[in-house]
Design brief:
Strand content: 15-25%
Bound molecules: arginine
Structural class: alpha/beta
Oligomer: single chain
Radius of gyration: 29 Å
CATH architecture of the largest domain: 3-Layer(aba) Sandwich
Largest sheet: 5 strands, mixed
């Protein structure tokens, strides 16, 4: 070994030794100090996690993406409310037909699923303040002669079972009409329209507009009718859960006040909610075939 390389060796060894020493010190410092005597401060209450049911076949309100995650406008609204109100939510995909039973039995703490607030439903569940304006809209094939709801009277009409669309069509065609074709989901009803199994589908405007826009191959058009009564969506809770209801309403008011709601709305519908005639604003002008 030359003198130079020996010195170099010693330098390196010194550095290594110093490094080891530092590491040892560092390690020592990592050892947690003995716990300090506990003060009388109470432990914070654990954050509550509520189970939220949603029929995730209702884009853009709730649907499943390719990763199987539940996504959509309702999901973002619910998450934002939860963040403000200080609780957590876990979404569970729940078929529409069993969704209110699941709520009544306590299997779900809440339901957010584009649920229209109706007098009848209010008998068996509580609703938050409204968070979305909607109306029924008719989907037909591009070459259809239908121009208004009453034109459906003698035709085959597809609806999702137990929805407000089902109610409206049942009223027009009659309770025992065999021309009403009921489906487990709205996309299934629209698929049936595409293959010619029904002449029209009646469902919530937001979902119909979204479906028609995303399925150009289906050759659909939409027909609106002022006959359809305005609807409002609310978050459904089991009857009598006043404490949670108040929290949800407070969270909803907060996200409306601070612009969060408007940001989510714009993200999904391309424009902020119109102050007047919000439901009409959702359907593209070209969609009205009157
Ligand atoms: N708004 C309509 C109703 O309350 C339809 C809602 C259907 N929602 C769904 N996620 N499938 O009856």
């Amino acid at each position: 070994m030359t003198a130079l390389s020996t010195r170099r060796f010693l330098q390196l060894a010194g550095i290594t030794a110093a490094g080891l020493l530092l590491a040892a010190c560092g390690k020592k410092e990592e050892t947690p100090p003995p716990p300090a005597p506990v003060a009388s401060a109470p432990a914070p209450a654990p954050v509550k996690v509520y189970t939220v049911g949603t029929d995730a076949a209702y884009a853009p309100f709730e649907s499943q993406n390719e990763q199987g995650e539940i996504v959509g406008f309702d999901i973002e609204v619910m998450k934002a409310i939860a963040a403000k109100a200080g609780f957590e939510v876990k979404f569970v995909n729940t078929p529409w037909e069993g969704i209110f039973n699941a709520l009544g039995q306590g299997d779900r703490d809440m339901v957010i699923s584009a649920v229209t607030i109706t007098e009848e439903r209010k008998q068996t569940m509580d609703f938050s303040d409204p968070y979305f304006d909607a109306a029924q809209l008719i989907a037909v094939k591009e070459d259809s002669k239908i121009t208004k709801f009453a034109d459906l009277k003698k035709l085959k009409v597809g609806v999702q079972t137990g929805t407000t669309g089902d109610e409206a069509v049942t009223k027009l065609l009659g309770k025992n009409s065999t021309n009403i074709k009921r489906f487990e989901s709205t996309p299934l009803a629209l698929k049936e329209l595409e293959v010619g199994g029904v002449d029209a589908v009646v469902a919530d405007n937001g979902v119909v507009v979204h479906y028609v826009a995303n399925n150009p191959g289906g050759k659909f058009k939409t027909v609106s009718d002022a006959e359809f009564v305005p609807e409002q969506y609310g978050i459904a809770l089991k009857k009598g859960n006043a404490e949670l209801l108040a929290l949800v309403n407070k969270g909803l008011a907060d996200i409306k006040a601070d612009g969060t709601y408007e940001r989510i709305y714009t993200q999904f519908f391309g424009a902020p909610p119109a102050a007047a005639a919000p439901a009409a604003a959702m359907a593209p002008a070209s969609a009205a075939s009157k």
